[in-house]
Design brief:
The protein is mainly alpha-helical. Helices cover 41% and strands 3% of the residues. The protein has helices spanning 2-26, 51-63, 66-76, 86-92, 108-121, 126-134, 235-243, 247-250, 261-279, 288-302; strands at residues 83-84, 156-158, 176-178, 307-308. Strands 1-4 form a two-stranded antiparallel ribbon. A two-stranded parallel ribbon has the order 2-3. α5 (108-121) runs antiparallel to α6 (126-134), α5 (108-121) packs across α9 and α6 (126-134) runs parallel beside α7.
């Protein structure tokens, strides 16, 4: 009798554990709470952006050509720029102010901590907190000899922005866009592409360009920048890092003619991450010294102590 009861109790415990694991696995997909009272119309208002932001995107759109993107990937693979851990890399970003961002003038380590803390306050899983902590580390390229902010930060439009945190794809960080096909009119300041040579190329200016219909974003060259990942993070986290700047896709619905079923699945993860990246920029500054022990503990779960950058 006792054995039967213990067996029943064991089954109940096992079922309860399964339910908790299922719940924990879904937490990333629950709607964000921290931004419910945010004035969201204040963010990404590029019509009223300062000249610094407008001039940045003009330069980026003029120079992010197919030829540049191919050469940037070749150059990236030629050398190791530094060997250091994640927190040391974050501290290096303290000197960087993103010229493409109209919503904040705080240092990048502040933005990384604000993003991670907003995710943490909403009870999201640890891997998502880490995604928030490292998602912009590719901006270190600016300190490692990039040609300027135009090839590191800003929205992605077709370039796979790579955060130096990972060498999985060998790409490099901005709003992201696709190169090798027609520039989308959903990109910020689309009229500035008229000074880009690819705008007039017969192939690169066509709808599909060098790509096949629904080839998938894994097979598309995004503009050179900062969003990639050397980690044990799950696929959802890698998608959050890789595509968080690809606003023409995840916010405006552009490039659907190039995406496939896998992209549709990961889109939910990218959209779930976006509020924390965007709306946390108005939160109070974080105390890095107080938060460091907690996040160094998380970093150790997902990254080696030293990484090649």
């Amino acid at each position: 009798m006792t054995g039967a009861i213990n067996g029943h109790d064991l089954d109940m415990t096992s079922d309860a554990i399964d339910e908790v694991n299922v719940l924990k696995g879904r937490l990333w997909d629950e709607e964000s709470k921290f931004d419910e009272e945010k004035e969201k119309e204040r963010f990404r208002n590029y019509d009223s952006a300062c000249d610094r932001v407008k001039n940045f995107y003009k330069e980026q759109h003029e120079k992010q050509t197919m030829q540049f993107n191919i050469q940037a990937r070749v150059n990236f693979k030629k050398r190791t720029r530094a060997r250091m851990g994640i927190w040391e890399a974050m501290e290096m970003l303290n000197t960087l102010i993103d010229e493409s961002d109209p919503d904040t003038s705080l240092s990048q380590i502040e933005h990384l901590l604000q993003t991670a803390e907003a995710i943490r306050r909403d009870g999201k899983p640890e891997w998502m907190q880490i995604a928030g902590l490292v998602h912009d580390l590719g901006k270190l390229l600016l300190l490692f000899g990039s040609e300027g902010q135009w090839d590191v930060v800003g929205d992605t439009f077709g370039k796979l922005t790579t955060s130096l945190v990972a060498e999985k794809r060998g790409d490099l960080p901005c709003d992201v866009l696709v190169v090798g096909c027609q520039f989308s009119d959903k990109i910020i300041y689309p009229d500035t592409f008229v000074a880009n040579p690819d705008y007039y190329d017969d192939v690169y200016s066509s709808k599909y360009g060098i790509y096949q219909p629904h080839c998938g974003l894994d097979n598309v060259m995004l503009s050179w920048g900062h969003d990639e990942d050397q980690s044990t993070l799950p696929d959802e986290a890698l998608a959050m890092i890789r595509y968080h700047s690809f606003y023409p896709w995840h916010r405006e619905g552009a490039y659907s003619h190039l995406t496939n079923e896998k992209d549709e699945r990961i889109l939910a993860a990218v959209k779930a991450f976006n509020p924390y990246d965007l709306y946390s920029k108005s939160d109070a500054p974080c105390d890095a010294s107080k938060l460091r022990p907690y996040y160094e503990g998380l970093i150790a779960k997902f990254f080696p102590p030293v990484i090649n950058w």
